[in-house]
Amino acid sequence: MGVFDQYEKRKEYLICVDSDGCAMDTMNIKHNKCFGPCMIEEWNLQNWETDILKRWNEINLFTMTRGVNRFKGLMMALKEINEKYVAIEGVSELEAWVEQTKELSNGALEREIEKKDSVVLRKALHWSEMVNERIQMLDEKEKVPFEGVKEALAYAKQFADIAIVSSANLQAVLEEWKLYGLLEYTDIVLAQDAGTKAHCIGELVKKGYGKEKILMAGDALGDQKAAKSNGVFYYPILVNHEKESWEEFKDAAVPRLLNGTYAGEYQEKKNEEFVKNLS
What we know:
Layout: H1 3-6, E1 13-17, E2 24-25, H2 27-42, H3 49-60, H4 70-84, H5 91-100, H6 106-115, H7 119-137, E3 144-145, H8 149-157, E4 160-165, H9 170-179, E5 188-190, H10 197-205, E6 214-218, H11 221-229, E7 233-236, H12 242-259, H13 265-277
Parallel strand pairs: 1-4, 1-6, 4-5, 6-7
Antiparallel strand pairs: 2-3
Helix pairs in contact: 2-3, 2-7, 3-4, 4-5, 6-7, 8-12, 10-11
């Protein structure tokens, strides 16, 4: 029985929340200490390390591609490296898998390698596994929720079912949310292995929620697109303004969702703030 089969709608409203960079202040530390450095090691890119790591962070943290799935981010970075610095064997094979697969996860990549062995796919899998190991090694004090998250979720949980909808590693999400007492405010945890964010929201919609009663809170374009593709509302947690964003989530966004005034002017305002903040 799958994770969606086990889930039952309890309340009239549903609020979906991304994890890394949205609820948890973990994106910068993970990219600075894990994702980028592991790519440098795996592909022996030390000669261009400073410039490549800067570009990795631009792709994954500070522009509209913020929060992109790890394998999409890797593919984008390696394509640029292949063109600008050094040849990357099989980069087109990685691009083909990223564009065609229905699931961007270690498990899906393992299955692809069983069907078609490939140097670049094996290296991508090893890189991803190494990233997970490095994340596990980070000090717990370096992986904390943003200020105001717990209070906001506790408030929202009174009126809505709460779903974590994340593209991060499931084990990491569970450990981080449990450590800070956030799991008790959630009803379902959907991570990398559950499918894309758009797919996850779509499966939850099928449980009987009205689309006008669903809100996705996130910090990246993928979150906004996942909400839009399912016809549900989007609330942005603005990079470098997370505390203020979570305060407004509690004081204005959730009340507007409940009283039916989220659509229109307020949603447009939040979308404009989101784009401006990452431009």
